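Limitations

Structures in this collection are predictions, not experimental determinations, and the ligand pose is part of the prediction. Treat each record accordingly. The example that follows, with 5'-O-[(L-methionyl)-sulphamoyl]adenosine as the small molecule, is included so readers can see exactly what is and is not provided: the inputs are given verbatim, and the output is the predicted complex.
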Amino acid sequence: MKTFYITTAIDYVNGSPHLGHAYEKVLTDVIARFRRLMGDRVYFLTGVDEHGQKVQQSARKRGIAPQQFVDEISQEFRALCARLDISNDDFIRTTEPRHKQVVQDILQRLYDQGEIYKDEYKGFYSTRQEQFLQEKDRNPDGSWPELFGEVTEITESNYFFRLQKYQDWLIDFLKRNENFVFPRYRQKQVLEFLSEPLNDLCISRPRERLEWGITLPFDEAFVTYVWFDALLNYYSAVADKPGIWPATFHVIGKDILVPPHAVYWPIMLKAAGIEPPQSLLAHGWWSINGAKMSKSTGNFVDPIEFAGKYGVDALRYFMIREMSVGQDSDFSLAQFLARYNGELANNLGNLVNRTLNMTNRFAGGVVPAAEVDEAPEQNLRALWEKTRDEVIPLCEGFQFHIALERTLAFVTATNAYIEQRAPWKLGKSAEAADQALLRTSLATMAEALRLGSALLTAVMPGTVAKIQGVLGHTPAPVWADELRWGSTLTGAKVAATAILFPRPAETKA
Ligand code: MSP
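Predicted complex:
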């Protein structure tokens, strides 16, 4: 079986993690967990991008060495993964020897093969920003914007990677692999980009300008351009682990699709004689309250703080429910609270409470066997089968937001079933038929809760484990078995109560 190898982008460590980073990890985690449930052997990699100018600058601002700086911030990203319940198998840092070694080996190989050559690079350079500028950076009147300070035309020797040589190969590759980029319309953007001739890629930076990088193995006066270094993390992390490469999916934001992931990366691999990844998944961007996320304006959500306040699974649920994979979305507290209260607390949480309360009140806390099978039970069971059969293909196609909508609709239907059967009325009757119906309704609601929550496992793993715990249920080892309507809960001892989604302070009277 081919390993389902999935990765996130590796985050720059020049600042603390924010909601966008959190989303990408949660989305990738949901896919990884879903594939594991489906029986795939999954390998999930995430990590941090620690080299480059921005990191060097941020460390300098703090007056500490870059290594000390990245050691600190990387810890925050690692802690974010733990806090968000991310099930990654590995966490790579680009300053680790295992990564540097692979980068240098590949650079040397490409250099020996003549894929990398030295040339003069002529261009406008801003010393203040320490970067080369392009014509598009100029003001409309031709002058350079203030922020660049003094701009001079300089000529610098650098190493170049023969990107252009592979342009036709890449176009052909994309035409043969129509599903290389998800969503598909983004593949068109890649082809559009490739309709113009590619320039070869400058893959070095002179050490006197940038020290914080991986030394070129064939010229110590230079370090590696940060993207050339960073992209290789996907390969370096598994280079010594047979059977994992090529990646099944690289999950990335739309901003880093073209050119780094869809152009540089496949060409780098092709030139080095390594198989390309199977696909790229480009997600959209989160804004906050309608505006771009920015620390300086305070328009910023700290995912760790947020998870602490509202619960990690509520945050995971909201991000996956709210964003259609590939599109942009807005994160607003009002919208979060609406979903938290309406869908989690008052729908799913309510079903859990009712099931526990009524099982305790009418059946001594032990789930009875169903005895009656009438229209209400049959309808709910039919809806379950429909829901399950729709949700799985939706998740396979990354339509998680619709999968959650359908699953919660099943939870709503289960609450409606309870209203219809009204166990509190049946409990007052001594009639044998009513007692049989009462036992049936208790069994049915518990079973529907077990099943509905099973479909939420990938998105809210902690909550689902809690629900299984309070239902006295040990899930089947194979997920498909867990998704069959049956009587596994008969005789299970349920807990007295469970508070899964406490009322947030904002909505308390
Ligand atoms: N270090 C590079 C990636 C190298 S991968 C070989 C980088 N880092 S980043 O920290 O700027 O971004 C990391 C990921 O977070 C990217 O996929 C990016 O698209 C994503 N996001 C950053 N801000 C985001 C939002 N506001 N919303 C959603 N995701 C966004 O790029």
